[in-house]
Each structure stands twice: as structure tokens, then as C-alpha cells.
Known about the structure:
The complex is a heterodimer of chains A (222) and B (105).
Chain A: H1 2-9, H2 14-26, H3 31-47, H4 53-85, H5 91-118, H6 123-140, H7 155-168, H8 171-187, H9 194-212
Chain B: H1 5-17, H2 23-32, H3 39-51, E1 55-59, E2 72-76, H4 78-95
Amino acid sequence: MSRxxxxxxxLLPCSDxxxxxxxxxxxxxxxxxxxxxxxxxxxxxxxxxxxxxxxWLCLGLAPLIxxxxxxxxxxxxxxxxxxxxxxxxxxxxxxxxxxxGGLFLAASTTFCVAGFGLGRRTPFALWIAILVPxxxxxxxxxxxxxxxxxxxxxLLPVLGARLMMKRLRSSRVWSVVATLLLLVLPGLxxxxxxxxxxxxxxxxxxxxxxxxxxxxxxxxxx
Amino acid sequence: xxxxxxxxxxxxxxxxxxxKAYGASIRKQLLLDGQTRSIGAIQTGLDRLEKKGLITTxxxxxxxxxxxxxxxxxxxxxxxxxxAANFYNMIETATRGARWAEIRR
Lengths: 222, 105
């Protein structure tokens, strides 16, 4: 039983584990009571972040943003594909690929920094909210060829931004830069697709809100 | 700073115990006061109070009776004392004149 308790306690943050196991030991509980108490505490800790409405806002927006990024990924891949395969490509189409790439990078990183900043207490749930729409889009492709994997292209800058956030610990600096890029790029008529422009503009508002309402010192959950 | 009933009970127990306030001792104190609470509820309550700045916690020395594990010692801050005093005054003022105010345990 003590082994099971030790295993379960691994789900608690290191800083709390000692004190909580000590409290259980000192309270002279029966093994079953101890197991019940520890499980109750772990469940409370896991559910606690979900009492914050901002986490729900973030989890609600994540699938929409994921769909937008999937759209941008496919658009960028198609444009780049056209540019590479068509021998009579002009400088204008190269510029369009570069501009679309810029928007793609700025949107991916901004939404990643905003989303993981606000939803960092529920990282697994957030990843699921991001990946499910992309996987569903992938499943809609008639053939699962290598080309259909382009729906996951947005994950590269997202993972890059995530790693950068962990290393630099100053995500706000980059997030401001990325946000400015995101504000400026669509304004310069980078993309001809007005639907994408509108989606970026609409989703930017909650993303900006998330960015600038980050709080520190909160516990992580799953 | 608004307080809940359970938060007030935690602050009162921690204040009563002084330097010996930590999870298990607070639970025992609450039991003495007729309040049965789980270790999980107490820990979560302490987390909430710490987040509000009403208490501070630090890890104490490990003891044998705890299997060589450290305690999470709790200290009520000045803000915490003020919030608890306000809560107590509010209850006392609100209860004045109520029929059950005369009932004592």
C-alpha cells in the first residue's frame, strides 16, 4: 500500500509531496483512508485550474485557432507548391509565398505564446484541443499521402515557440513582437484571401487578451 | 479581502497553533473544534489562502513521527489577521439580535 501511495504521490508537485505524505503519516490513517485522502487531494489539484474561466476561454478558442492555422498551413503549402512546380513563376508569386509564410509564422507563434501562457496550467488538455481539429482535417483527406500531412505544418512554429518560451522565460517580449507582426502583415494585404484576414483579425482579439492577462505562480495540472 | 467560512476556520486554527501550524496539526485542531476535514481539503484551502496572500508557508525540519518528512509550516500574515478579524466582526455584528445569538455550546 505504501508503494501505491508513493506512486500516486508522484502526481503531486515535488514541493508538496514531502509535506503531504508527512501529514498522512502523522495523521495515523488506515491504509485505505490514506489512499482515499491522497486520491482526493490529487483529484482536487487536477480539477482546481478548471475553476478559472480563462482556462475555459483558452480551451474553447484553441480548436478555432487550430482550424485557422490548419487553413494557413494548407494555403502556404499550396502556394509554395505552385511556385516550385510552375517554371514561369514571377517575383510577385514568390513575394506572396514569403508574405504568407510571414503571416503563418507570426500567427502560429502569437497564438502559441498566448494559448500556452494562459492555458499553461492545463497543458495536456490544451494540446488535445489543438490537435483534435488538425487530426480531423487530416482524416478528411481522400488519401493519406505525405502531401496531406501539410495540415500539421503549423505545429513546427508552435513547437518552436513553445520551446523558446521555456528557455527564454520572457515570452512577453516575443509575443509583443509577434503580435505587432500579426497586426501589420494582414494590413499590408499580404493575403488575397479576405476570409483568412477576417479570421486572423477576429481571433487576434482574444489572443491579445490572453497575452496581456497572464499571471504567474499558479500550479500546473493535466 | 472576502473570506469563506472554511478559509476563516483555517486562519483561526493556524493562528491558534502559532509556530506549530502545519497541515496535520491544523486538521487536529479543526477536529478538536468539531470540524472534520480531509487532508486534501486543508491543503487546497491553504493553497488558496497563500495565493490570496493571507498566509505564508515554508518547509520545516523533517521529524521521525512523520517518517522523516518535512512539514509545510503555515504563518498567518498581517493581511490574513485583518481579513479574519473583519470576518469575525461581520459575523458578530450580523448575529447581534438574532434568536440563536444567546445559544452557547
